[in-house]
């Protein structure tokens, strides 16, 4: 009888221990970051690049979407600095000197900022390329500033898109398209 009683106590004890281990395992399993679904970014990180006139031009940015919002004059206010993308500032890198609006942009990596306007946009290449948003932007760190005229797009460009497009052997343009607006920044590679 003692053996049966001892056996029953052992079974109950082992059973309770297993239930507790299962509960702990389930709790750990449900809170484990490896098993949780990672949400898709609303502004995925992307890039655009091209070889033009022997120069490698690279643009790195996060691409937000319109998502039924008014972008220019709304989310991105007119006459205010914008980092030309989401999250971190967009940057442009060139391994050769460029001529933009008769101004020299030396080979290097630059923060790319704009000030959108209804009639004109200011485009700034800033010496500090690694900035979070526009919070750290300082006008005195601009190395090149130019003005461009925005062009209307016939169709909605849902996601911010950059292109580096070749014009001829030694020239091209940086293109930004979003919502119903496009800007082009022409450049020539200096050899």
Describe the SSE topology:
Layout: H1 2-31, E1 45-52, E2 55-62, E3 90-94, E4 98-100, E5 103-105, E6 108-115, E7 121-126, E8 142-148, E9 151-168, E10 171-189
Antiparallel strand pairs: 1-2, 2-3, 3-6, 4-5, 4-10, 6-7, 7-8, 9-10
Name the shape in a single word.
globular
Number of strands: 10
Terminus-to-terminus distance: 99 Å
Mean pLDDT: 85
Work out the oligomeric state of the chains in this entry: single chain
| Rg on CA atoms, Å | 28 Å
Strand content: 35-45%
Brief sketch in words of this structure:
With 191 residues, the chain is an alpha+beta fold. It has one helix and ten strands.
Give your account of this protein's structure.
The protein has 191 residues and is of the alpha+beta class. The protein has 1 helix and 10 strands. The longest helix has 30 residues, at 2-31.
């Amino acid at each position: 009888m003692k053996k049966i009683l001892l056996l029953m106590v052992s079974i109950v004890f082992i059973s309770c221990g297993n239930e507790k281990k299962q509960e702990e395992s389930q709790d750990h399993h449900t809170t484990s970051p490896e098993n949780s679904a990672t949400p898709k970014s609303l502004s995925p990180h992307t890039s655009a690049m091209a070889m033009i006139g022997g120069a490698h031009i690279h643009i790195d940015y996060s691409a937000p979407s319109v998502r039924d919002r008014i972008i220019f004059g709304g989310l991105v206010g007119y006459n205010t600095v914008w980092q030309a993308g989401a999250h971190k500032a967009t940057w442009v890198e060139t391994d050769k000197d460029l001529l933009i609006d008769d101004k020299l942009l030396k080979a290097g990596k630059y923060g790319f900022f704009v000030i959108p306007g209804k009639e004109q946009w200011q485009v700034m290449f800033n010496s500090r390329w690694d900035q979070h948003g526009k919070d750290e932007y300082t006008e005195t760190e601009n190395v090149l500033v130019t003005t461009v005229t925005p062009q209307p797009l016939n169709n909605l460009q849902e996601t911010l898109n950059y292109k580096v497009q070749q014009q001829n052997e030694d020239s091209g343009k940086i293109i930004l398209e979003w919502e119903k607006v496009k800007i082009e920044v022409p450049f020539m590679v200096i050899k």
